[in-house]
Amino acid sequence: MKLYELTIHEAHDLLKRKEISSKELTGAVLDRIEAVDSKVGAYITVSRESAIEQAEMADREISEGKMSALTGIPIAVKDLICTQGIRTTCGSRILENFIPPYDATVITRLKKAGAVIVGKLNMDEFAMGSSTENSGIKLTHNPWDLVRIPGGSSGGSAAAVAADMCLGALGSDTGGSIRQPASHCGVVGMKPTYGRVSRFGLVAFASSLDQIGPLTKDVTDCAILAGSISGYDPSDSTSVPKDVPEYTSYLSEGLKGLKVGIPKEYDAAHGLDPEVSLAVKNAVKVMEKLGASCVEISLPHTEYAVPVYYVIAPSEASSNLARYDGVKYGFRDKEKKSLMDMYRSTRSKGFGAEVKRRIIIGTYCLSSGYYDAYYKKASQVRTLIMRDFNKAFDICDVIVSPVAPTPAFKIGEKSDDPLTMYLSDIFTLSANLAGIPGISVPCGFSKGGLPVGLQIMGKHFSEEVLLKAAYNFEQATDFHKRKPEI
Ligand code: GLN
């Protein structure tokens, strides 16, 4: 087996037994990036030198017997999480040359755990999108079929994990951006509960929805990475002071007694591909065989998730993105003489079409006279969606569904049709609106050989239950063992 093919926990065992060094492992991953990323396009920045330094440091720690589950493990990071001294573009021309003066809390935690940061990954500009085609920097291709999208907005993260260009990655999820690319690339991805992971140093998109989470090769790795980034942070006022369970210790508990909710509304969802529907139904059967029992549940406000999200997210984005004015940092159009001209031209040239569309929609929804009709109304309906989940969780422990209605589509297929793209978020948005955790785990392949993911959602702060359910399913199947040929 090649070193770059290892999972985090496999590499940890070899490092611990001193059969490999972090320098060898990191070197193998950096060579792998060199060999295949010209085809995939997952990385915006590869931090070769600092990665090698961090690997050497990790090797020293290991030789002194100081070791965490992530010591010496090469991890890559979505390019909207601030990394001190390493360019953080957010997939946007407006931040193309922005080098943060500080680390995000999740990066501080990873470094403390001894992880090696190998680079920054491509994404839709400001995390707005479902295909990574909205990146202002480059295109990313799905490792399973290079003419297809990897999903988005954490498309670079999912593609890098799938193509073995890192052992694990961080992404962010505002409406599905970890789970959907994980599903399209055949890897595991989890959006933790809102408040579980600090967002200090995460470039804000929609502050009431954003959450950072892991993308990994298997569920065990997901539990390890999630555990290391979770926990209270006084620098993020939305972070919750609650102990983080040792996630890995729950994995091998069985599924006996687990109540799995199947939402009756989801089968009729717009554009649900029969192959995806079948893969999810088969997954439920596997869970039943493992001892879980199924109940039908109802989430009656599901049809409003897309319109509610596409009012709330652009509104918050329009406010968050006001800071990119060419004055404080980032791109500035220096040709313009007056202040107003400079603002206008900087933002016109710096932002791409989708970001502008959302700023315009959001500004409209928040403007005086319209606020009540749009943002306030959407927030009220959001409460109804939350209540649907609370009610459902009275009778079940987890809810399962597809992640995306179809497997990965072709590059260019939907880029001229934002509405179709928005509608494909139907299964993932609700978890963000309700603040609950959700995980995507590989559950099948289409006839064309494209991966399909199963979504498992749970109550607030029940990540260990999701991980346990996903792990049991994974161990009973072998979808996670298949690799793309690249
Ligand atoms: N696809 C959704 C959007 O375009 C979700 C993005 C995300 O989770 N960052 O907004």
Describe this structure in words.
This protein has 486 residues and is α/β, with parallel strands linked by helices. It has a single domain (3-258, 396-481), classed as Amidase signature (AS) domain (Amidase signature (AS) enzymes, Alpha-Beta Complex). The protein contains 15 helices and eleven strands. The chain has helices at residues 8-16, 22-40, 48-63, 105-112, 155-162, 179-185, 219-229, 274-289, 305-320, 339-350, 353-366, 372-395, 418-423, 429-434, 463-476, and strands spanning 43-46, 74-78, 116-121, 168-172, 188-191, 212-216, 259-263, 293-297, 398-402, 438-445, 451-458. Strand 2, helix 4 (105-112) and strand 3 (116-121) form a beta-alpha-beta unit. The structure holds glutamine. Glutamine (GLN) is lined by residues 127-130, 153, 173-177, 205, 313, 425.
